[in-house]
Each structure stands twice: as structure tokens, then as C-alpha cells.
Amino acid sequence: MTPQHCILQGAPLDCGKIRRGCIMGPDAYRTAGLGPALQSLGHTVEDIGNVAPAPYTDVPHPKLHRLSETIAWTQSLADTTEASLARGMPITMGGDHALAAGTVLGAMRYAATQDRPLFVLWLDAHSDFHTLESTDSGNLHGTPVAYVTGRGDFSGWPTLPAPQPFDQIAMIGLRSVDPAERDALQETDITRVDMREIDETGIARPLGAFLDRVEAAGGMLHVSLDVDFLDPAAAPAVGTTVPGGATVREGHLVMEMINDSNLMTSLDLVELNPFLDERGRTAQLMVDLAASALGRNVFDRPTRAY
Question: Which of 104, 157, 164, 247 has its CA 20 to 30 A from that of 52?
């Protein structure tokens, strides 16, 4: 990837689900050396600190967990991400996956000002395609893709410039999708790659096809990387573990292909819960993956003394 001005923005958002701990994520990434890792690859790095939610009044909801706070985070992260994109590549250090409602919205707004299509690569065990009506848990980290695509009633949330087109989204690594989400996904043109397809054909083929579409369209690419994209044996610091995820090798291959494409314009690192980590190894792995997406190749991976 050509040298970038990487803007690190912390999102200590911990309201998207009941289990706590993701609030510590941004500082874990800093401690694990995300900034120096990117600088060593020739990029400039600016850490703008942690974003705060927009002012809000907490209004308890009978079903949805911390709705008012999540809307406030969506507003502030959208504004921050849009502003960061005007100056460089925002890398959002989360924080649970509810943050992507804001970061994707900010990328959508900026792409519209550039008259370029935005594509979203969702690396996750889950599709996060619930509406506010369909979620059983009330955990809003399961709703951001529904929100940005205009599904369901998100009254009170920031207005979308236009719904994110289904055919400009790819979900890779799926292996835990609720029935309501599955039924809804099957009615869309979202690219869906589950672990069975990855086992049968490999991860490079569907990813390469999606990246080719982004390039052909002259698109911007927002990458949202959830810790649970990876197998929990390699990345235990997540509250939503699903066995059978991507291996470390597959994770690095995905990131290196993203780097080779030179298409990524913004990146989320989400769902890291340091409270559940083992000697920081998940945080370090996520830093290593981010470095692979920004130019570290297979020969340069550091030895780890876990």
C-alpha cells in the first residue's frame, strides 16, 4: 500500500451488548503498539485520542440495550470518521461492533462528497443484520448492517445520505447467523461467504472477486474486522466466541490481499475485550493483522513469545 496518513481514533464504546469489557479496547491497541507498527511500515500516524458520544439523555427502552447511548455514539463516530477521511485513513480502535453504524455512515457521507461508491467488507462470524424489531437479545452490536442499508425502522438515528447498496457489501467468515437474519439476507445481493465455502474453495477466491469489483467501480473500501472473525483458539478476547473461525494464516492472507489491492480507505478493529485476553495475545494479533493490511508481508512477521 502506498504511504498513508493513518488517523487512530479510539471508540471505547461498550453499549452494544450486555457483556462489558470492550471499553478497554482502544488502550489495549495502543499498548500493543499499533501506532509504532504502522510507522515502521512508512506511514505517518496521528492518534486523535478517544471519541466521546454526542450529548444524550438516557431513555430506557423495554427491549433494546442502551439505545440512546448507541445513537449518540453513532452520531459522533460518523462525524469524526467523515472528518478523518478528509485528512487520511481513519483506523477506529473499538469498542464493540455497534460502532460500525457510525464509522460506515461517516464513510458513506464522505464517499458521497467524492462521487465515489463505497464498498464494505465485513469480516465477522455474525452478519449483524438484525433490525430493532427482529433482535431477540436487544444487543445493538447485531444491528449496524441493517441500519446502514436502510432496513427496518431506525427512527431517531442519524439520517443516511442513501442506503448502502446491498451489492456493495461482502460478509466473509460467517458461521453464526440467526434465522431472521438468514431469511432477510437471502433476499439481498449481499455477498455472503460462510466457513463451509471457505473450507471448500479457500478464502482468496471470494475475497479476490469482491476486491476486483471495488477496483472496477473506482470505489472506496471500508473494512470492518471483528475479533470473532478469527477462531477463538487464536483470538480468545471476545465475548461472542464461535468455534471454527478463520485461522491466523487465513487472517493474514485476507489482510495481505487488501494491502495488495491498495483499495482500503478506512478500517475498524472491533469487539476486542481485553478482560478476556491471555497475556495480550489477541490485541497483538489484531495489531499484526492491521499491519498486514498496511504493508507488512509474510517475511516480516515478528516472532511472539506468548
Answer: 164
